[in-house]
Structures are given as structure tokens and as C-alpha cells.
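Bit of a strange request maybe. I'm writing a small parser for C-alpha cell strings and I need a real example to test against, not something I typed by hand. Could someone generate the C-alpha cells for this chain?
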Amino acid sequence: MTMSNPNTEAPLVSTAWLADRLDQPNLRVFDCTVHLRPAKPGPYVIESGRADYTRAHLPGAAFVDLGQDLSDPTSDLRFTLPAAAALAAAFGAAGIGSAQTIVLYSSTSPMWATRLWWMLRGAGHRRALVLDGGLPKWLAEGRAVVSGASQHPPAAFEATPRPGVWADQQAVLAAIGDGDVCTVNALSTALHRGTAELHYGRKGHIAGSVNLPYTRLTHEDGSLRSPDELRAALADIGAATARRVICYCGGGIAATLDALALVQIGHPDVAVYDGSMSEWVRDPALPMALGDTG
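Reply from user aminoacidic:
Good idea to test on real output. This should exercise your parser:
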């Protein structure tokens, strides 16, 4: 079910909702598309979605480059969250203001839109939304797109960081064996089990974590599954009723789709491990496991 009120915590809006509001002056729409291309050594190389945006995007939408403009340039981990002041400045330069309603979408996986939504959520923005189904659903419905490029004017963004939205390595380590915390791996089952050919440097998953691949949360058109379906999937792994849930993946991107699903069903305490496997595997002392459990 797609929610339509941007003043609530519900993160999704429908294509119909957005189509009716594209001309509102306080609304700003952003294409967040990124491509991950398989590579060896892997697991992937990053390709900006700017060319896709230039070919076809929603009317009035601007492009935001997650890898280039909204990642910490001092970190050797890809897509690392910038410090609060730097992030606020980058948001403002992109045209994201604290008082505006921000709608985010991707032409590929919705995880790119949910990544930016989670970043805004962590920075205290309460009018950030994700377009359910993104550009593919918009196009499938025969809605208009335009080519070329446009940019929103700079805006004032005041960060008011929300506690508990991000988890660091120590918090994830402390969660191992803690029955109140459910740590969820959003990567594929093969990566979780350690049977995939490509990996992040060590095969398997963070010890004690459970697996809910982000791809199971959406329909084929990229739209999110119903709250009942999400609740059932999250209940199967113990996340729906856990006091706190920490989501991770390879680099803090796919994890935000699992986090969005948890917010969508009303879970009150959800965090994303920004460094995720890319950081965890670097320290051989940090425990990992193979298979479905452990």
C-alpha cells in the first residue's frame, strides 16, 4: 500500500500522487540512479546514472550523484556517509531544503532512492519520500518523461541528526548474541551463505545475522510489497518483533531497502550499518559465518 501523506513517517508515495503534484512549488524531485557493474577483482564497479537521467527523467526532476556528491571523499569505502556539516552543505547545494517535500526515485533498483531517503531521514528531514516503483512504473503507466538536464536552485538545509538511525562497527559487534537486537543482511542468499563466486573479501555474513535479500521486498516492477507481505517476511527472520534491528549489506545501500520495509510496517527502532561488509571484512578478528545460521 502506497501512502500519500508526506507529513507521516510512511516513506512511499504513488506515481498518481506525484503526477498530481509535480507543479507544486515546494516539491522537489530527484533521480538517484546508480549502476553497479560486476568486476574482478570485485564485487563491482560504480557507474553514475547521469546518462540515463539525461535520456529520460520525470518532468522537473534533477539528478543527484550519490557516489560523487553525497559520499565522503576522504573515505576509502564507497558511498560512506559524510560528516553532518558536509552532508548538509551537499544537500543544500543539490537543492534539497529542510522545508521542502523531497521525492526520490531511480531508473534501476529502488535501493538508490531508499539510500538517499535514509540519509535524509538520518539528517532529520521529515518530508523525504520514495516514489513507489520509480521510473519503470512511471513509464509502464504511460506517464510523460523529458530528456536533457535541469537543476534545482540551492536551498537551505539545517541538519538535526536523528539518534539511532546509523549503526557503527562497534554497535554491530555488540549486537552479536544480544537477543534484543536482530541484525539483518540484505544481500543475496548466496552471498549470505558464502556460496557466491564474488564476495567482499571474506565469504559469508556477519556472525549472528539473518538474511532477507532486498530483492524479496519488491514486485517485478520495483514497487514495494504490501505491508502484510513485508510483515510476514520480516517476522520469518525475527525482525518484525525485535526491539531493535540493524540492517547491513555490502556498502550501506541495499540495507536501506530492508530498513524502509521495517519503517513501512511501523517498526520503531531501525538502524543501518553504513560500513557494512566492505568495512567488516577488513578486520580478520571480526567474526563471520557461513551457511544460513551462525
